[in-house]
Fold this protein.
Amino acid sequence: MYTGRRYTALVFFKWTLRKTLWMFLIAAIPTVLYALGWHFLSLPWQPLALLGTALAFSVGFKNNASYGRLWEARQIYGAIINDSRSFAFTLRDTLGGKEDKTVHMMFYRHFAWLTALRFQLREFRPWENTKNRSNKNFSEGNFSIPEWESHVEDELKHYLNEDELKYILSKKNKSTQLIALQSESLGKLKKEGILSDIEWLELQKCITRLIDDQGKAERIKNFPYPRNFETVMTFLMYIFIFLLPFGLLKEYEALGKGTFLEGYTIWFNIPFTALIAWAFHILDTIGESSVNPFEGNPNDVPITQISRMLEIDLKDMLDDKNLPEPLAAQNNILM
């Protein structure tokens, strides 16, 4: 998550540099050929205007859908924050309090769940964008994805005993199995008479809400923005960008007729066509960079930071003095 007031012009320029150069090249080739006498290259602008209108609606639809997915992802992690806190203090006050070993064990198992979930949500999917060249170039030296620089087993060993760690590492969906262990522990406490039926029911409701939150996050992670919409819009984008300079050749040539700029205004086609093409393409790129809100881009939900913040909050509930440090932003970016 980017935490600055706004991206600087330099950052934006570096992020889009390669594509911007392509826009100038696409605009320059037909302009140069037209200036050399290839006037047959000119196309009427009206069909391009219709295509541009359709493309603008498509880009707007995609960006609206992208923001919807991003906002839903943030709401899911907001629910994880609230449900984790309510589970923690209900568990603490229902069982033996801050010094109880079972409370500590289940608190640390919850930290393991938060850890396993964030590692699961950071796994790469073929439709995601973190490995695109422009995003990789931008990330180098600006930020790093913690889940890509460590292993889940190394993180989980800080929270689980040896037997539980071995058991969880043998499972495919580690976060689900950690919630199942929590439920199993609550069931044993109920059978032993440590928890009353009402207390067990309230804690089970907390467990159910947490697994609901996990399922919602997994749905967004594993169900991409529909590829048919994305494919059609990409084709339309490339067709529009390629044809745009051909449709504006006569317009820019006629711009200077009867003035001292006559014969020179054709060259305006290069920067202004590139600017229009860049505007459409960058709006699409911004939507694409937000459509997968857990992958690890600068505009995504900062699930690593949220998990660390929750660990601090819950350890504070136990009066733990060895609180971990909050995660600091890297160049105004929280992961």
Notes: The longest helix spans residues 45-94. The mean pLDDT is 86. Residues 142 and 317 are 34 Å apart (CA to CA).
